[in-house]
């Protein structure tokens, strides 16, 4: 699993950071998503990545 | 493409039970999930009641939030309109690319980390108000003692608005959101608050500091050479109203709901790690700011099998979506362990609530502290006698008499 983030679509809601702060953070300047770990391993981290994609309001996250 | 029945339904619909959406939503969803409805403005619009349709509409680039456009569906008989064009639309009334830039200018102020840094100060504000509550007479009105002052103080400090003016701006805000006041009164409240914030921003421009959000925005504008006074006034206007009214109502509604569901309350008392999950569930169940998810189509688009034509208004009934059984199993059950975070109580798409993480943090600190420090808290009147805000654009409680 690989997390792909499109910062152009990100609206800085921070829902991904709330879901898993080990996978995501936000830029201090404009709040856009920073992927801390693009290749989550383990059931819990993968489930969190799927949740983050599902609830991302700007649909800026996807999985490959 | 399915045939759509013309309905005679009119929005807004009233909640019968204070803890549930209007019962007609279920009928609409079952009969015609994308249906024609009348609005108090005399307009007709499409009402969406399915979660997936609402999410699709709110994330589609073919729907506009531009409230200056006459096609925008209005849920009040006569909307407040500035008499001149000096008032800019706030974030919620703009579309990309104008909106994208304006949101990006300010969103860094509301990141999860920035909000967390406010935790000690919010905790202190909550503790001070609970000290005062405990030292005061019983019963007490929790709305005045806690629900309203906590988020008001927090947003005032964050923005740089003097809290000493809270009686003034709370009265303006409440009139603007009420469905009961005359259009003239609403207009006067709007003008008064706009003039107040216009003066405040002018003062800050003369002496901008890094100490508050408005000062930081002024300094940032100077750096980029894009000083825009009118934009700052409308930003201050939106954040001040949205920052206190919504959270205040969720504090009151959440307190009542948790007290009425002692088994659920016991779970967060035993494990405060569950409070955030309880807050998501409370947000879903109440969905207090439903009209924020209205738009109009800028192109012909199919939603839920129905063709919506360019220029037609659409009201995403987010409270209906948040009780859609296809989105949430047993949607009418209040279950803090549901773990469902795909609700649309904060909206969806590019306009999803800017202050959502501030709201979550305030609610978390309030509930954890209130139930820990006042373990005997109870509602001082029968629940069916509580004055729920059936008359306001933002649902909530006018008062909440409590004792302990």
From TrEMBL, chain A:
It comes from the Bacteria. InterPro entries: Fe-S_cluster_ET. Keywords: 3Fe-4S, Electron transport, Iron, Iron-sulfur, Metal-binding, Transport. One of its GO terms (molecular function) is metal ion binding. SUPFAM superfamilies: 4Fe-4S ferredoxins. This is Ferredoxin. Its cofactor is [3Fe-4S] cluster. PANTHER family: FERREDOXIN.
From TrEMBL, chain B:
It comes from the Bacteria. This is Cytochrome P450. It comes from Amycolatopsis coloradensis.
